Amino acid sequence: MVWHTTLSRARHTGTAWKANGAAHYHGVAVNRTLLALLITASAACGPAAPAYDLLLTGGTVVDGTGAPRRVADVAIRGDRIVAIGTSLSRRGAARVEDVRGQIVAPGFWDNHAHLVTLADHELAENFVRQGITTVLAPLHSQDQPFPMDRYRAEVTIAPNVGLFAGHTWIRKRVMGLANRAPTTAELVWMRALVDSAMTQGALGLSTGLEYVPATYAHLDEVAALATVAASYGGIYVTHLRDEGPGVMDALRETLEVGRRAQIPVQVNHLKVTGAAQWGWSTQMLALLDSARTAGMEVAADVYPYTAYSTYSDLMFPPWALADGPQAFARRVADPATRARLVREMRVRFPQQAGAAPASIQFREVASDSALAGKTLADFLVAAGQPNTVEAAVEALIALQLRGGFIGIFHGMDDADVERFLTHPGTMVETDGDLVTFGRGFPHPRSYGSFPRVLARHVRERQLLTLEAAIQRMTSMPAQWLGIRDRGTLAVGQQADITVFNAGQIADLATYTAPHQWPEGIQLVAVNGTVVFSNGRMTGARPGRFLARGRQGR
Question: In CA terms, which of 66, 99, 297, 368 is 20 to 30 Å from 235?
């Protein structure tokens, strides 16, 4: 506007002096002088900033709130969404993506994954390629980045990440693998470690009570530690103490932790294992619903597979593994103790896996890498042993003495998985690991969980609407954590965005061929920066470590 007015005045001045040639020439000179000054001033101000850094045009917006889809453009400037509407101007946009026919959704939240090797996999490619822009990492294993604030400062990441204080790591640091309650001094130390993690940004306390040494912790210990997290506004997330015959008691224990510590509770990878327990999903969900009705804050997350993956430790009663590998070897060498172990493991086998040795598939075997991908039945055949549970138990003991293994255990029922997944109080997760494409033998969930829900449960089986599925992948976890500026597509929100083809999205990874990227994901942006597009990672690392959204007491 200033430019136009100034030039008009210059033209008017020159016209007024037309009667005199010299005066007219002088007027032209004035015009040129003014023009030069304006150009110089404009150059000094630098090029104009683009109206938008990224403009997605013509897509079908599913905003994460559960509202019906609509066709709209989405504009991003910096790390925020700045406009949503029809026919937004492309003029001045630094990058325009025509996404007609595609779904434009908030970036997906993985509510439980394993990020032990994040420093070596900063792009988290197998998660990003599923449309995941935020990964929550409850620390159930024995690995924890500590001090957490230094770790956060040193690691640059593609997706956003939320970290928790890991009870297993804390207990092992203070008590080793001891099978007993902590002393007063030990409990004080553990509480101090939780406090330290919370001051460094942990979102809450996580436990893996089915694993050694966390399984040796009783309710009083867990509640005492959860109380520390609650004082900071943290939540309590847990891998239940038992996901088989004792799953109902394990759920009751979790709810009791919440009551005692006055803390919101979240059950990771809600499931029930063992054919004798199939169908228990109904009563498990009823128990959680009753707690919500009573006023508790309760959540759960689910992955869409009927097999889980974990350490061989879970095939053994906890007492057998107390105090470490050497103590285990001594117990096995004692005939009476070994006989007791064998009896208990024969009962435990169908509770943790299936009814036959083929239900256990090796991912990684400490003593023999060639076993990856094969089953326990394959191992027995190669050893000339019968394909029986009795022989399988002896093989498990032998493998554990040589360092154990990570396996895939086929012990769940599809009806339970679907019942959990479609319940209105559950969210989606992968329980996956960071993987290098083509290396190792991961569970397919590490590649396909979110596309599988959208393909299998939304498009094919129509158990969920697209809007409902995306809501539990996006705004539900954000709201659960009290994070208000993520999880939906709205002006002012952080620009975490996933664009996908609803008719083509599919998981391709299988139990026998896990290294396969999913189909249908078109573009993924984290904090306004594109990290995946046109079938490739861009190499950008705009991810951030999440801060707590809930207020402490």
Answer: 66
